[in-house]
Every structure is written in C-alpha cells, then in structure tokens.
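Raw record, unedited: 4-hydroxy-3-methylbut-2-en-1-yl diphosphate synthase (flavodoxin)
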Amino acid sequence: MIDDFAKPKQRRQSVPVRVGNVTVGGDAPIVVQSMTNTDTADADATVAQVAALARAGSEIVRITVDRPEAAAQVPRIRERLDRIGIDVPLVGDFHYIGHKLLADYPDCASALEKYRINPGNVGFKAKRDTQFSQIIDIALKHDKPVRIGVNWGSLDQELLTKLMDDNAASENPVSASAVMREAIIQSGLLSAERAEALGMGRDKIILSAKVSQVQDLIAVYADLASRCDYALHLGLTEAGMGTKGIVSSAASMGILLQQGIGDTIRVSLTPEPGGDRTREVQVAQELLQVMGFRAFVPIVAACPGCGRTTSTVFQELAGDIQGHIRDSMPKWREQYPGVENLNVAVMGCIVNGPGESKHADIGISLPGTGETPSAPVFVDGEKVATLRGESIADEFKQMVLDYIERRYGQGSSSSTTDAA
Ligand code: SF4
C-alpha cells in the first residue's frame, strides 16, 4: 500500500517579512504576486492594471520605477488605488538608478512597500557598494523591506568572472553552468550579507535567483534554500508565451514547492499581443491550488472527451461554469466564505461520469453517444436528480448556484465549517 507517497515536504523555515499588509515567509500562506507592464509614468494605465491584477487575486504588485517621471507618479498611483479600495502593496522595481530615484522622490520611497534591488546592475565597479548602501539606507529610513533579486540575464559580471577564474585554476574544475549557478547564488547571498551589515534585519530581506531554464531553476533554488533562511521569492524568468510559459513555470515551481521551497511566487508569462495580464495571476493561483497549498476559486473537473461523446455540451458547460465562477469570485469571496474549496465535476459519459461526479461536491454525468439522453446529478456523493432535454446545462448551473447558497451562504450551518 502506498501511503503519504506524494506529500509535500514540510515547508522550509524562513524568516517572515512584512510587505505592507501581507506576510511573506514563516508560516504565512505562499503569496501570489505579479508585475505590471504599463509605463508607470502613465498613472491611468498603471492604476487600471494594478487594480485588475489585485482583483484577479494578486496579493502584491510590482511596478517598474525606471525614471523620474515614473517615480513622480508612484505616490499618485498609491492614492488613487486607495481611493478605489485597492490596498494591494506596491513594490518598486529598480535598476541602475534606484538609489537616485528613491533619494530624489521620498514620497515614492514612502508609497512603495518594498524595493527590488538587482545586485547585477545596482552600480558598477567602485559605485556598486555606495549605491547599494544608499538604497539600503533609504529602506531603513522608511522601514521598508527589500527583495534582492538576482537575474541571470543581468548577473554581476565581476563576480562571475572571478568564480570562472577560480574554477579554471582549481584542481577539480566544475562545468561552466555550475559556476554560473554558484555566481547567481553568491550574488544574492553576498548582497543580503551586505544589507545586514548595514543594519537591515533578516525580517526585511527577501531573496530571489531567477533563471530561465527549468532544471537550472530547480538546482539554484534547492541550493539557495539550503544555504540561508531568508524568505524566497520563486519565479522562472522569461518563462515565455502561452502553454510553454505555463508548463515551464508549473514544472519548475511545482517541484520546488513540493520540496517546501518558496514563500511567494510570480509566473512570468509573456502575454499574447493584446492579451490579459491577469493570466499570470490565474496560473499562479491554479498552481498553488492544484498542488493543495491554497484554495482560491472552486475547481471544475471535466473529462477531456473522447469518441464516446460527440456532443460539445459538456465542454461548453464546464467552460461556462468555470468562467461564471471566476467572474463571480470577487463577490462570492465576501458572500460565500469557504466557496473556494468547492469541487464541481462535469463529465462526458457514463464510463467515468458517475464515479467522478460522486467524488465532487456536485457533479453531472452527461449522456455520451448512444446513451439514454439523461444526465444524473450527484450532490455530496448521492444521486439527487436526473436532468433531461434541452435545458440540462441551465438547470445544472442553477443547481450549482443553489448548492453554493445552501452550503456557503451566510447563515448556513456550514458557511464557517466544512460541510458534510
Ligand atoms: S468520461 Fe466518457 S466521454 Fe469523458 S473521456 Fe471518459 S470515456 Fe470519454
């Protein structure tokens, strides 16, 4: 008998970091975050996108602060978000001139809840340490945490060259990719040590070490996690478009999360032209939910369909219900506490339909080709109805809504406890 075979490892213990109203690390739930792709100097577009990301479930949103015009808008963006009731913490993404922007725009420094520093481009040669210290000093003054975010695309070249030279002179040289991974890890750890030496507490430091290859990401984070107890921000950089981006992110982060590694995640998808930026939030949530770490929206299980069903009714119904649930979640979260744990099944025929439907909270087994045109509905494992005729889909949708109201509605005995 296989028991507990696939249980996630106990979560790695990290020092919790407070980012505005959200805790990253420690025992806090794994946080979903995202990043805008608007020009931060365009406050209208940025407010709209931050609001959309937050409403989709992003618990932290990062914005680019790349020039004075952007820094000047940050406090206004914060004010406008507050006015429309969006209290999601904003993180500033700084490269090259972060020290100057934060010093010249103190209202920006104050409006942001965290500063992201890239050790690979915080400054070069003699200026690097000074400019890094300036950012840390400003963070200390404003009592803000930082993320020391290494990215292999902008890795500290001096450090990499030194490690490559040391490796070449070593009696047992390792591969160039192993040296590169070590440089990524050391870059993060050395910068974090420097921040601590400047007076920053471990409870103000989050680390990330992003690369774009799945196996490299797993190796880098597994090593990094064993060498420190800083909270870790997990993400595969430049994951790419569409299914490739989703699969690569899910494969790499899924393995690390299963090992107990990762306190906050971002899925770096490249949106299709004109595509929806909130997709990355949806993917991050679904990754955490399907792995059993958190619940965000009810899950609709649907069979893939096969030659036993020629109708598209079940696919349309599954899509319809999933879409309706996702659209309704901002309201339902308040109205139906616990509804995110609901499981719905929409199945295409009698082979697996009744079995899968019985395992769901509410499920329907639609008729396959040649089957009697009737659809049994199961609620909490019991068959409660058989739907027939043209309106099967509408009737089942209504049954799902009634079930939600009954089980999770205010005043229902199970709205605060798990229902039978
Ligand atoms: S439940 Fe039926 S229709 Fe769906 S995949 Fe299985 S056999 Fe095919």
